[in-house]
Amino acid sequence: MLNYSLIDMSELKFYELTPNQRLETLNLPENVMMALKNAQDLVSGQIIENYVSNFTVPMGILKHLLLDGTAYNIPMATEEPSVIAAANHGAKMLNAGGGVHTELLTDNTMIGQILIHQITDYTALQVFLTAHRDEIFAKAQATHPSIVARGGGLKNIELRMVTDNMASIDCFIDTCDAMGANIVNTILAGIIPIFDIFHTQILAGILSNYATQQLVSATVCLPFSAVGGQDIAERIVAINHFGHHDVYRATTENKGLFNGASAVTLANGNDWRALEAAGHAYAAKTGGYTALATWSIEQQQLKGTLTLPVSVGTVGGAISALPQAQNALRIIGERVSANQLRRMIVATGLAQNLAALRAIVSDGIQKGHMRMQYRALALQIGATPDEVPQLTEKLTQLSRVDTTIATQYLNELREKS
């Protein structure tokens, strides 16, 4: 361990400094420096590089989402106003139809790739893979025996042509309740030496975030009354139909869906970027980018479906290291499996999607959104928590609002009190 009292800081690289020493090199105002120091903790400094402080994201609750016959309270972490309110409104509508029904569509394995290029004889590569299949499985088991002991590990291996001279050896690995990126990469590193005769052609062994073997589908059937009548239901179907034919609308609709799905993923310490990358790839699986959710009228009901590739865990890595992730999981339940969390993420995405579409085709998306924006504006101009509700209520009644107008009404509010 370095003895910092005996070392000139100028001789150290930035990553070798302590968090406070790093802050001192940034020439920050004293109040900013102290705020950043006060937000530090010992755990976070071990998770990322060049750590200086914590950036917290507000966490709220999606209350009482009925999922496969059980009601759940689901934590959501997001900085965007109105997301959690919309998710709760969406859940209320979904619950009116008996809640969301989910299904795991695939065998729940992550995909690791051994990437090979400059292939001159594809048949020879296939023959080699077939001949060494047992050896590959044995090596995978020996490389990560703990995951095998829990029922996971390498489950299948396939050769897939990418171009006429590039191929991927796809390894399907069950990582159980772990998100599993490190497990996959470790197993790949263990089995690559078996392909030594192709070593000059092997580019890498790396997991894929396109989790097509971790597909989850959520479905709901609602009475028209749940969304405000048949006319609103038909308009929801129409705007969703637009998203299946126009990439501009599809992008916005899918972003709104991920407002909910990603907020659940983040709250539980999982990789929301991987979720969104896989989701957007899945939206383009037919060659054109389209809306992920589908709404239709069937048997005088509004039917919604959403299928997403979801790769998350409930143990290991940052999930186990971060107390806030563990606390969020405890909100859901005592022992939450990765499959349960997958179902909740997709169901929340469907609730978020319905709330957004319903708002757009009825009152307009701004009505609820601006109330939350005005609350943020009130805090920005110095309103106290006690003043925020009164000021927000006043601002929602105005046709135009800016910082000057909000400050004026805040001063008037204080003069009356």
Structure description:
The structure is a single chain. With about 425 residues, this protein is α+β, with helices and mostly antiparallel strands. It has helices spanning about 20-25, 30-40, 85-95, 120-130, 135-145, 145-150, 180-190, 230-245, 245-265, 270-285, 315-320, 325-330, 340-360, 365-380, 390-395, 405-415, and strands at about 60-65, 70-75, 100-105, 110-115, 155-165, 165-175, 200-210, 215-220, 295-300, 300-310. The strands form 3 sheets. Strands 3-8-10-9 form a 4-stranded antiparallel sheet. Helix 15 (about 390-395) packs across helix 16. It is globular, with a radius of gyration of 26 Å. The model has no long low-confidence stretch (mean pLDDT about 95).
Core attributes:
single chain; 417 residues; alpha+beta; 3-hydroxy-3-methylglutaryl-coenzyme A Reductase, Chain A, domain 2; Alpha-Beta Plaits; 4 domains; 4-stranded antiparallel beta sheet; 10 strands
Low-confidence stretches: none
Strand order of the largest sheet: 3-8-10-9
**Which secondary-structure class do the elements indicate?**
alpha+beta
Main sheet overview: 4 strands, antiparallel
- Estimate the strand proportion: 15-25%
User: Which CATH C-level class of the largest domain is it?
Assistant: Alpha Beta
Helix count? 16
Q: Give the CATH topology of the largest domain.
A: 3-hydroxy-3-methylglutaryl-coenzyme A Reductase, Chain A, domain 2
- Under CATH, the homologous superfamily of the largest domain reads 3-hydroxy-3-methylglutaryl-coenzyme A Reductase, Chain A, domain 2
